[in-house]
Amino acid sequence: MTENIILEVCAFNIQSCIIAEKAGAARVELCDNPVEGGTTPSKGTIERTRERIGIELYPIIRPRAGHYWYDEDEFEIMKKDILLSKELGCDGISTGIQLQNGKIDTERMKRLVEWAYPMGVTCHRVFDGAPDPFEALEEIIACGCERILTSGLKSAAPDATEMLAKLVQQANGRIIIMPGAGIRASNIEKLIKETGAAEYHTSARISVPNPVAYQNPAVLDIGNVYLANEEELRTLLANAQKVKASGE
């Protein structure tokens, strides 16, 4: 029978974290800057979110958008943000670092894990940029991470179920393989059946209308506010439960 399915929600604000907990998610990956794929949230955001939710809280430790090769100043920023997350009572972090050849920077990744302890560490989608995913998997295990967030090297996880299944098989319980990117209520059953993974990552985000009555028509660069869709999250979890109940 399928294991209990654990859902992590990629949340870009405190409101989405609260929605995720209400919908039944087990964990949130708290990020800023959704358009850039997520960067480290502010101290105030982390602290207030920790006060407001009881489920696991994993801030992303990513000092900027773009590649995951960081200079000494950026690496020091990551250290400070990790120590702050620990001080604020977070359960873990989501992070990753690479060499200029795209491989996992194992030496510095080990240091990130050491700084985070006793918090857990998810290796984020830096994994999907590695030239050899099977080698990278072993390296990340050796670094002490507890899980890998991956789309299976595709832009969306539902398009990479064969690769994800291979990663789950190779991991063999030594590390959690958590598919993420493009996961919805409409495809979660297929993903569970074809990959065998027990944890999944989704933002289930929707753009919400601007509640401010006046908007200067000449100012168009204010961006959008995204919230987790509670109904989508509930349906996703319900569909996952169907697979468990069927014993497939």
Write the layout of secondary structure elements.
Blueprint: E1 6-11, H1 14-23, E2 27-30, H2 43-52, E3 56-61, H3 72-87, E4 92-95, H4 106-116, E5 120-123, H5 133-143, E6 147-150, H6 161-171, E7 176-179, H7 188-195, E8 199-202, E9 205-208, E10 225-228, H8 230-246
Parallel strand pairs: 1-2, 1-8, 2-3, 3-4, 4-5, 5-6, 6-7
Antiparallel strand pairs: 9-10
Helix pairs in contact: 1-8, 4-5, 7-8
Tell me about this structure.
The protein has helices at residues 14-23, 43-52, 72-87, 106-116, 133-143, 161-171, 188-195, 230-246, and strands at residues 6-11, 27-30, 56-61, 92-95, 120-123, 147-150, 176-179, 199-202, 205-208, 225-228. It has a single domain (6-208, 221-246), classed as Copper homeostasis (CutC) domain (TIM Barrel, Alpha-Beta Barrel). By secondary structure, the chain is an alpha/beta fold. An eight-stranded parallel sheet has the order 7-6-5-4-3-2-1-8. α4 packs parallel to α5 (133-143) and α7 (188-195) crosses α8. The radius of gyration is 18 Å and the shape is globular. Helix content is 38%, strand content 18%. The longest helix is centred in the C-terminal third of the chain and has 17 residues, at 230-246.
